[in-house]
């Protein structure tokens, strides 16, 4: 099942970087807490980092770790 951002209540910012920020969020139905990485697509494209973002996604999606949850 695909997850939609509307299913979460965005809370405070945990960290920021060149392309966006990580925000603490709570799933509205289950009340579970997650960290959501939100990227600025325009900056990624402008700085020609699209391949790096795809690589990061592919690497993280292959990991099996309790701190990494992937729903695509």
Q: What does the model show?
A:
The chain is of the alpha+beta class and 72 residues long. The chain is built from two helices and three strands, in the order βββαα. It has helices at residues 41-46, 50-62, and strands at 8-16, 20-27, 33-39. Strands 1-2-3 form a three-stranded antiparallel sheet. Strand 1 and strand 2 form a beta hairpin. The longest helix has 13 residues, at 50-62. The protein is globular. The N and C termini lie close together (8 Å).
What are the key terms here?
3-stranded antiparallel sheet; 33% strand; alpha+beta; 72 residues
Summary?
By secondary structure, the chain is of the alpha+beta class.
Unreliable parts: none
**Computed CA radius of gyration, to the nearest angstrom:** 13 Å
Instruction: Describe the strand arrangement of the main beta sheet, using strand numbers.
Output: 1-2-3
Task: Sum up the overall morphology in one term.
Answer: globular
Order of helices and strands: EEEHH
Mean pLDDT: 89
Q: With helices defined by DSSP (H or I, 4 residues minimum), what is the helix count?
A: 2
What would you call the structural class?
Answer: alpha+beta
